[in-house]
């Protein structure tokens, strides 16, 4: 499901305040920014917004962008403006190319402040762009077939994996994606505890006996493959091996995609918002999954019980 977010930012400059309204859709990251000229009533401290007009014609800087990995396509959709263009990409490069569409490739993942100037920089609009590698995984396509393109971060459980069979991991700028494969049917009601070591260091977080190199800062527990889904979020509040977790209330921190049963196995996919995982450094994490049956007895491990936990590098290009 696509979600529309609106953020407002104010900046005082030459006795005016610029108001940037950013409309952001999760899937395509199609962002529209609007600039308004604003009057300040100093006595009443009231801020009233108005759009610049010339002979009744509305004038405003406006653009959209779509990113594909590190390549971003910017499109000017300003109204009432016919002057020149100046593109400032936020990575130290600029362009004065006179075109309504600009394609720019950024050098690496990161945070960039992009600004479009129009009419000799009289009008401008800007936003912050967060870029990371793209992912082929789509949770709204009703199928798990897109996971065939994920070939790097794959974990196949062995003998000590018990009822677990496989996991795959991928990520982009917004989400970490998970694919889980286990024996049995959806009706078995297998419960998953997923531990994430956000800084990939055993010296911090909960030290699991099942995964020798992990010090997990967060845990997610639930059943995502059943009709009545639940998925609880916990942060570690103890020391070392103390079983001490605090429940965290967070909105829209996960999404669930397709669920399939085939050849005696259950497969499902989901994603967790990177911005919701407290303590995530953005460099690397370790992941350990413990599956339990409906009576909370051990059912499976990904990777195998006794291993280090899977190290997911978040700096891939």
Task: Give structural notes.
It is built from no helices and 27 strands. The chain is about 0% helix and about 55% strand. The protein starts with a strand and ends with a strand. It folds into two domains: about 5-130, Immunoglobulins (Immunoglobulin-like), CATH 2.60.40.10; about 145-315, Immunoglobulin-like. The strands form six sheets. Strands 1, 2, 3, 4, 7, 8 and 11 form a seven-stranded antiparallel beta sheet that branches. Strands 17, 20, 21, 22, 25, 26 and 27 form a seven-stranded antiparallel beta sheet that branches. By secondary structure, it is mainly β.
Task: Sum this structure up briefly.
The protein is built from no helices and 27 strands.
CATH topology of the largest domain: Immunoglobulin-like
Given as residue ranges, the uncertain stretches (5+ residues, pLDDT < 50) are 1-51
The largest sheet is: 7 strands, antiparallel
Structural class: mainly beta
Query: Looking at the structure, what is the overall shape?
Result: elongated
The pLDDT mean sits at 84
The assigned CATH architecture of the largest domain is Sandwich
What keywords describe this structure?
317 residues, mainly beta, Immunoglobulin-like, 2 domains, seven-stranded antiparallel sheet, 0% helix, disordered N terminus
């Amino acid at each position: 499901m696509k979600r529309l977010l609106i953020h407002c930012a104010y900046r005082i400059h030459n006795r005016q305040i610029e108001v940037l309204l950013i409309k952001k859709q999760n899937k395509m990251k199609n962002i529209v920014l609007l600039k308004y000229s604003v009057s300040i009533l100093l006595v009443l401290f009231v801020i009233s917004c108005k759009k610049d007009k010339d002979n009744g014609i509305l004038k405003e800087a406006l653009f959209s962008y779509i990113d594909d990995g590190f390549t971003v396509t910017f499109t000017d959709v300003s109204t009432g403006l016919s002057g020149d263009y100046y593109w400032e990409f936020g990575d130290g490069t600029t362009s004065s190319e006179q075109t309504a569409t600009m394609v720019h490739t950024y050098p690496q993942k990161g945070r960039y402040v992009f600004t479009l100037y129009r009419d000799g920089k009289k009008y401008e609009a800007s936003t912050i762009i967060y870029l990371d590698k793209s992912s082929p995984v789509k949770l709204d396509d009703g199928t798990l077939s897109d996971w065939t393109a994920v070939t790097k971060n794959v974990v196949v459980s062995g003998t000590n994996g018990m009822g677990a069979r496989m996991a795959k991991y991928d990520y982009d700028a917004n989400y970490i994606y998970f694919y889980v494969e286990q024996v049995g049917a959806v009706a078995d009601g297998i419960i998953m505890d997923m531990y994430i070591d956000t800084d990939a260091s055993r010296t911090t977080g909960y030290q699991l006996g099942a995964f020798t190199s992990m010090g997990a800062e967060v845990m997610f527990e639930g059943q995502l493959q059943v009709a009545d889904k639940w998925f609880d979020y916990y942060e570690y509040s103890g020391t070392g091996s103390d079983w001490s977790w605090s429940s965290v209330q967070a909105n829209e921190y996960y999404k669930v995609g397709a669920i399939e049963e085939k050849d005696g196995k259950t497969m499902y996919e989901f994603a967790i918002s990177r911005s919701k995982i407290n303590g995530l450094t953005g460099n690397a994490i370790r992941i350990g999954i413990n599956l339990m049956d409906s009576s909370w007895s051990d059912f499976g491990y990904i990777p195998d019980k006794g291993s280090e936990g899977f190290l997911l590098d978040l700096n891939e290009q």
